[in-house]
Design a protein that fits this description.
The complex is a heterodimer of chains A (about 425) and B (about 500).
Chain A (H helix, E strand, L loop, with lengths): L23 H11 L3 H20 L4 H12 L8 E4 L8 E4 L9 H28 L7 H17 L6 H30 L3 H20 L27 E3 L7 E2 L1 H18 L1 H11 L1 H6 L4 H28 L4 H6 L2 H11 L4 H17 L12 H20 L1 H24 L3
Antiparallel strand pairs in A: 1-2, 3-4
Helix pairs in contact in A: 2-3, 2-15, 3-14, 4-8, 4-11, 4-13, 4-14, 5-6, 5-7, 5-11, 5-13, 6-7, 6-11, 8-9, 8-14, 9-11, 13-14, 13-15
Chain B lengths: L10 E10 L2 E11 L4 E5 L6 H8 L7 E6 L2 E3 L4 H6 L2 E4 L11 H6 L5 E2 L2 E2 L1 H14 L15 H14 L4 E5 L7 H16 L3 E6 L2 H7 L2 E6 L2 E7 L5 H9 L17 E11 L5 E11 L3 E5 L6 H8 L5 E8 L2 E2 L5 H6 L2 E4 L3 H5 L6 H5 L10 E2 L2 E2 L1 H14 L16 H14 L4 E5 L7 H16 L3 E6 L2 H7 L2 E6 L2 E6 L5 H8 L2 H6 L1
Helix pairs in contact in B: 14-15
Classes of the chains: A mainly alpha (about 425), B alpha/beta (about 500).
Chain lengths: ~425, ~500
């Protein structure tokens, strides 16, 4: 009936779609969706390209530097493709496998564990930003919420030693999450009641969390350790509250089961947004608060809940770091951690989707680990420069994410060039 | 084809065909335009009018056919090239920068410079001269964000004139205007026509096409149906060409049989956003089985009245009762639960979440109740099933349950809103500007539907700026002026009487 020149066939009971209105906003939205996967990848690639130029400018070879960084991330573990001895007794049976199954103790494996160890909290702080974003809120407070989670978990984890292991862990993570939710909920509450902008309030809450931490774990602070009063750190987390390590050596900072919690959190994030009435409300408010209000959705409650859930995510990230490998929290940790802030970049690059946040958390985790002083050979690139390289690539990613529109326009131009040449050829079969 | 046009056409389209995936937007369309005429392009939403004009304006390239400018075949690679060739287009959504002044917007991209620097004074003078020569009343210093929609449109027209356009394309220019502003626009267009300008006027409104156009070309589903001279054409004839069947321009309805009072508003006083009294001590009742129309010039408190009745804005004083339950200041959820349906006046701002799918939009009120969800768990498949049924029942075209609402045409978007509100089986239905921006077919649909809902015993409150709509639908008419109800009329009142009351006439009479 209807002439449909290849392309998408319309649903049978419906007449063909009318072309969308060609307004600028509509077209932009279209390309934003069309470039959904392409632009974040382009963004990252561009950031690495510019980073490479800087490396070259310092007189080093960008290719070898990047290769070295890549090996430092441990991701090369996945590239040891081949046929491997599986060590079946009395045989030399071999099996084809995408990575070296016998290589679990190798340096690559160890590096990969460290990369994933950093990626785990980044998933959580990334989700903290992403979830609020879906409700139309810009949560800059991931850092403070992360610190609150770390503080509460170290306090719970170092108290009540000898509690049943599973229960102690759940209690520490649960209380940390609640504290983080309450902390971020303050910003949501202020937004909902007096209209205070969440960017301002979350930044202020970051500083409050920061100084509470400095006081509580500082010299003479109420949560300072009781073994050496000149050291501003907490007590150690009790054995019963430590997360089991499932890959690598527990003493050498192996990968703890928080990794699975991170994956579960991504699933929970997706389900909450897409399969619950709460997620429906959050998305409606995020897209169009006025239409949501008209629809009977409690907009203010959505703001508070979205912030609280965001805060819960970030706080769990903090708790997992404490219970998984740090085991104690010092003033210096509170002052130096950047995990909460990098979460913003993670969410932006990941486009606030579950899969995107997971992948970009991995990217930033790999970057942080691959350029750390431990991993980079000073012969290739000075580690102190490398640390700055991480910051630079991070900043470039943010810059390019902000300049998304530029990339979209470039992309659009590219696509426009092609049909012009392919135009007449297309006509013939149709 | 048309032997009548003595002057050579300035623009000619021959056999233009444009395909999009799954749709043939233009199917061998031919069209010509002579200097000094207003040529209307008439057709329903989605008939291919905008596509055709975007081809002329260089935004799309045709798959087949050719565009001739002054007899020469041309092919514009972008709108910039089209502009350079003397084609100006005023889009439905204005492309102006709100924080800049009128003059700055007009000279944008073609700024007069002196030694490489912007010569702002020269720019302002040129804009002023241009405006004066066409009798435009406009202040070049005013910022776009501070002037009305009608003025903004003039800025767009001036922008085209500034770039020396001799062909002007107006895409549904009256959709955003008040009736008064539309009359002013027609004055401007007449002036331009006298100056020898060639104007293409895209529209789906029959009255205005007959008012302003010299010739009318009708498109239907991508095909050119006919080009007729406006003189001698009738609304009925054009409507038939447009829709392809007889269209009832008059609403068929029986006299109302009002029953019990379902909506009661007593002494309602509401403030607007600037905290000024916008609605003052308004009282009225709407009974089951009748349509009460509220007529008035835009900005006389209609918006605030609607908001207060539907729980979206706090009332200062007074009471709102729906089906015996008082809901004053209880909020939107309580109003919905009391049995109030609301077709909002702005479907983009309020009626739809444009980034949601149609299924999600249809669930906007009921997502929290079974079968859409249970205990907080949403069942998308049920949302989709319900949407599929409703989209079919209301003949929504252009997408299925998983289509984003933004990609539908205005008429179909409105059908989705109407479907959602009617589906909830409300006792009272408040329809605010229910046919704004819709084409003839969709208007007929909405009107018929409102009468049907009335006949099923709902109380219907119709708030509209279109006098004709009020006159053809309402069983009782209230006139609102400066926030007060200044008169009540039966259905046989004349437009003149109403128009007089709408501008405050009766108040003086009564005094």
């Amino acid at each position: 009936m209807s002439e449909s020149p290849g392309g998408i066939t319309p649903p049978p009971e419906l007449p063909p779609a009318t072309p969308g209105p060609p307004s600028v906003a509509a077209r932009l939205a279209f390309y934003q969706r069309a470039g959904g996967i392409v632009t974040p990848v382009l963004t990252a690639v561009l950031a690495f390209l510019v980073g490479g130029i800087v490396v070259a400018a310092t007189g080093h070879n960008p290719l070898t530097t990047y290769k070295e960084i890549f090996n430092g991330t441990g991701l090369n573990w996945f590239f040891q493709v081949g046929s491997h001895d599986i060590g079946l007794p009395f045989s030399d049976a071999r099996i084809w496998f995408p990575w070296n199954v016998n290589d679990a103790e190798s340096e690559a494996a160890f590096n990969l564990q460290q990369t994933l160890l950093v990626a785990v909290p980044l998933v959580f702080t990334g989700l903290a930003v992403a979830f609020a974003f879906r409700c139309g809120l810009f949560n800059i407070g991931g850092q403070g919420q992360y610190i609150v989670g770390a503080m509460v978990s170290v306090w719970v984890g170092s108290s009540w030693a000898g509690m049943a292991t599973g229960f102690h862990v759940v209690l520490a993570i649960g209380l940390a999450a609640l504290a983080g939710a309450a902390w971020a909920g303050i910003a949501g509450f202020l937004k909902a009641t007096v209209g205070a902008h969440e960017v301002i309030t979350t930044i202020m809450l970051n500083w409050i969390a920061y100084w509470i931490g400095n006081y509580a774990f500082g010299q003479g602070g109420p949560l300072q350790n009781n073994f050496n009063e000149s050291v501003p750190v907490s007590n150690d987390v009790a054995e019963s509250a430590r997360l089991p390590v499932f890959w690598g050596d527990a003493l050498l900072q192996g990968l703890h089961i928080g990794f699975f919690l991170a994956i579960a959190a991504l699933v929970v994030y997706w389900i909450t947004l897409n399969r619950t009435t709460l997620g429906y409300e959050v998305r409606a408010v995020g897209f169009n608060p006025e239409a949501a209000r008209y629809g009977g959705i409690p907009v203010r409650r959505s703001y508070i809940l979205a912030m609280a859930i965001s805060g819960g995510f970030a706080a769990i990230g903090g708790a997992l770091d404490i219970l998984g490998w740090q085991f104690r929290l010092g003033v210096i940790d509170i002052q130096s951690t950047q995990i909460g802030f990098i979460g913003i970049a993670v969410a932006l690059l990941g486009r606030n989707t579950a899969v995107g946040v997971g992948l970009s958390a991995l990217l930033f985790g790999a970057l942080l680990n691959g350029t750390s002083t431990r991993n980079l050979d000073p012969e290739v690139f000075q580690p102190e420069l490398a640390g700055n390289l991480t910051l630079m690539i991070q900043a470039l990613v943010l810059l390019f994410v902000g300049a998304d529109v530029l990339i979209l326009v470039a992309w659009q131009r590219l696509r426009r060039l092609r049909p012009r040449r392919a135009g007449p050829a297309q006509e013939a079969p149709a | 084809m048309e032997a009548a046009s003595a002057t050579a056409p300035v623009l000619e389209l021959r056999g233009i065909t444009k395909r999009f995936p799954g749709v043939l937007a233009n199917d061998h369309v031919s069209f010509d335009l002579v200097p000094g005429e207003v040529h209307a392009l008439l057709g329903e939403n989605g008939a291919g009018k905008s596509t055709l004009m975007n081809i002329v304006y260089g935004l799309y390239r045709p798959d087949e056919g050719e565009v001739l400018l002054n007899g020469r075949p041309v092919s514009f690679s972008s709108s910039k090239v089209a502009i350079r060739n003397g084609i100006g287009m005023v889009h439905q959504h204005f492309m102006l920068i709100p924080v800049m002044t009128v003059a700055e917007n007009i000279i944008l991209a073609e700024e007069p410079t002196q030694a490489g620097l912007l010569d702002y004074e020269a720019a302002e003078k040129r804009v002023k001269d241009l405006a004066d020569s066409f009798n435009f009343h406009i202040d070049p210093h005013a910022r776009i964000e501070n002037i009305g929609v009608g003025q903004q449109q003039r800025v767009e027209i001036l922008k085209a004139l500034y770039r020396r356009a001799d062909i002007l394309i107006l895409d549904e220019p009256t959709a955003v205007l008040t009736p008064q502003e539309a009359i002013e626009l027609f004055g401007i267009l007449s002036t331009l026509r006298r100056e020898g300008m060639a104007i293409i006027f895209i529209s789906h409104k029959l009255n205005e096409v007959l008012d302003i156009a010299d010739r009318v070309t009708v498109l239907r589903r991508g095909k050119m149906i006919e080009t007729v001279p406006a003189e001698g054409a009738t609304r009925e004839g054009l409507a038939r060409l447009m829709v392809g069947r007889e269209v009832l321009l008059r609403v068929d309805k029986t006299p109302a049989t009002p029953d019990e009072v379902l909506l009661e508003v007593e002494g309602l006083t509401v403030l607007d956003d600037r905290e000024l009294e916008a609605v003052r001590d308004v009282s009225f009742q709407v009974r089951a089985g009748e349509i009460v129309g509220i007529a008035g010039v835009d900005g006389n408190g209609q918006t605030e009245l609607i908001d207060a009745v539907t729980g979206l804005r706090k009332a200062q004083a007074g009471r709102v009762t729906v089906a015996g339950k008082e809901i004053t200041n209880d909020g939107a959820r309580e109003a919905l639960d009391a049995g109030l349906g609301h077709i909002p006046e702005d479907r983009h701002r309020r009626g739809l979440v444009l980034d949601f799918t149609l299924a999600e939009n249809i669930a906007l009120h009921d997502y929290k109740e079974p079968p859409d969800s249970r205990l907080g768990w949403l069942y998308p498949s049920r949302l989709i099933a319900r949407a599929r049924r409703l989209l079919q029942a209301f003949d929504v075209r252009g997408g299925g349950p998983l289509t984003r609402a933004a990609s539908l045409s205005g008429g179909n978007q409105q059908k989705v809103v109407v479907a959602r509100e009617v589906e909830r089986d409300p006792r009272v239905l408040l329809a605010a500007q229910p046919t704004r921006g819709l084409d003839v077919g969709a208007i007929e649909f909405v009107h018929r539907r409102l009468v049907e809902e009335r006949d099923q015993g709902r109380a219907i409150l119709l708030v509209s700026l279109e006098l004709e709509e009020i006159l053809s639908l309402a069983d009782r008419i209230l006139v609102i002026y400066e926030g007060r109800i200044v008169g009540e009329y039966g259905p046989d009142v004349t437009a003149e009487e109403l128009g007089f009351a709408m501008t405050g006439g009766t108040e003086e009479q009564a005094a």
